[in-house]
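Continued from yesterday's entry.
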Amino acid sequence: MSADNATVTAKPAAGLTGQVATVGKVPADQTYFDVGGASQTTFYYIPRVQFGVSWIDPSTNKPIPKGKAIVAGKYKIEYGFMDADCNIIPEEHTDLLGRHAVHASMSEDGDVIQPTLDSGAEYELSAGDTTVTVDGTYLGDVAAHAEIKQHIYPAPEQGTIAIDARKLTVSSLGSGAKITATYSHAGGKAVTPQEWAAIDPKSFQVHATPAAGIRWTVKKGATPER
């Protein structure tokens, strides 16, 4: 608009030409763009990355599969930028991240136990809720933050089963004979009510010699023996 409210037609600079195109969800690996009729082309790239943690079993040197329970014990912990398939990006493949840095800490049940977590080092994990806090930058000064939570289950214990009688007479079978067995933790430690409630009788198998066509049913008492 001019001073007297008359419409003025815009006149772009004659030498200013160009086009801006945004391409999203570009897959990883080699990508080719065919640009025609341009004397100069400039690309601006923003990586789509995320932080992640791999819990590695030292005995196999393989990551614990996603969804599998992690029990208390020693594990190798690796963390860093991850691709879309949740694989940690090797340092030699991080060119498009530009200048980058990443560091992490680890806490158990809200208490920091490792202020500085070394990726690839082994750590002893106790039962409880573990959180790995990761902070980093990429493309020079783009900040990123993530908190990866993992529940650590108690390590399984090898308990003992004491059977009160290992023999049954043939005459007692018709009246619903039974054998009583007592389960306890290693060293005779008593089972807690919570542990007792979690025991599934169907997980037990009974084998008799000779089998003699006998069918066994496993039941548990109402409360654990003290």
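--- second protein ---
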Amino acid sequence: MTYVSEIDWLQTTEEQRKILYIATRAVADACDTSVEEIMDAALGRKVLMGTDYISTFRRGKIRRSYAKLIHAWISENHAANASTIAPSLFTWQHTDAWGDYLKDYAIQGTLRIARFDKSMNLVQRPRRQPKPEETLRLGEEFCFHLDSDIDGYAVAFQRYKGKTHPLPLGLNDEPSIKINLGEQFLPIDETGRPEVLSETEDAGHHQFIICIADDCSRLPTQDLPPSCERVVAIHVTQVKFVT
């Protein structure tokens, strides 16, 4: 992730610093933290701020040098949220928003690869201790085994060479599907049986992602990556496809 700061913070107006406070408050609310904690992280706990520094910040009267450090910290750690809240202050050039989010919030070990037993047309249950990366041959049939700690709605994606692509889970290529608490195979066909997936062209390392939320409106899309302001459980698994 990269960010661009075109603002000379040592020359900013009170109005610009008021907007910075609004953005800081919004990021804090979205990420279950506080303005005070963000300021501590950006400035360091040894900085002397006075007795009513939050009010000073709210009124846009915080020191310009402090505003510069707060802006830089938010840009580095919460650029996606901040650019949505205060685009006049935060210009975000993201090269891999999905990757940045998954690095911090992905749940490992709950999404696994299940193979099909061709002789009996059954799904082989995945091992309890999954490998860090499964290996499948191009064209080999598989599906997902998900152990979810919530019920709700799910969408899936496949990441390959830094790009994220939607992977329909529902019937008739619908993107989302209703899922249940606990273990289940995905995707499923109209009879409720696991549906066959396979990769036939692209060898190499792939990452599969299933995102779960209690409301469809919270689910991410290819162009709208997940963010900490929308509560979504992100389950991932890695697969290497070989010839």
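The chain is about 25% helix and 30% strand. The chain has a mean pLDDT of 85. Will compare against the first tomorrow.
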